[in-house]
Fold:
Amino acid sequence: GGEVGSMRKFLTWSGFADTLAGIGCPIVEKSSSVEDRLWFIMQCLDFYGGGLIYLEDLQWLGRWRPESWLAAPPDREAVNEVKRLLEDRFGAVLVAWRLALDADSSNRLSWREFRDACSALGFTGNVGGAWRALDSDFRGWISLEHLDAASAEIVESFKAWAELKFGSVGRAFAAMDTDGGGSLTIDELRRACRRLKWNGSAPLLFKALATDGHAITYKQMSWMETWVNTGTLGHSEVADTLEALWKELF
Structure:
C-alpha cells in the first residue's frame, strides 16, 4: 500500500490481489478463471485507470446495493411457485401475462417489472433466484416463452395460422366475425376456430384476450400483429442487451 501527496491511501493491483488472497476472498480461489475475475473486479474499482485502488473505491463498493438476482443461483422451484400464484389468481399463465405482466404487449418483462409483479402477487420467496432461472443468459428481460413455453406456443400457433391462412391477424378476425358485429363471443370464437381449422385452445385464447369476460374485439387481438417470439435472438442482440445492462448497473 501507499499514500500520495493528498494522503489518499491506495493499493497497487498486485498488492490488492495479495490482500484478497490473504483474507481468503473467494474471488481469488484457485481456478482457471481466477485471473479473469481479478482483472474484471480491478477494472471496476480502478476509477482513474492508473493501476491503483484507492480507499474511496472500496467505500463506493460498500455503499452499492446490488439487485438480489446478481448473486442468486437459479431457483426453478421458485419459478414454479410464482406460476402457481399466477394460475391461482388469473386461471392461466397466458391470462396473467396479457392482463398483468406484459401491459405494453412487447413480450418482454424486465427484472423490475418481474420483481414488482411478484410483490403484487404476495410472493415472498426467492425472487432473485426465480429471475436467474428464467433469464439464464443474462439478457436483462424474459419473454412469455421463458415463463411458460406452452402459452407462448398457443400465441405462436394462432398468429402463424392467421397469417398463413388469411395474411394477417386482422383478416383472420374479419373472417371469424361472420355477423360483422365487431366482436367475438366465446361460442363464436369456438365455432370459427373449428370451421376455419385452428386446433389450439380457443377458451384459453378467449380468456386471455377478453378483458371484460364477454367478447373479443379486434383491438384486443391486434397486439398479435406485432408480437414476436423473442425467446431466441442472435448473438449481437444478446451482446447489446448485456452491455446496456452493465451500464445500468455500474
Remarks:
- The chain has 14 helices and seven strands.
- The two ends are 26 Å apart (CA to CA).
- Confidence is low (pLDDT under 50) at residues 231-235.
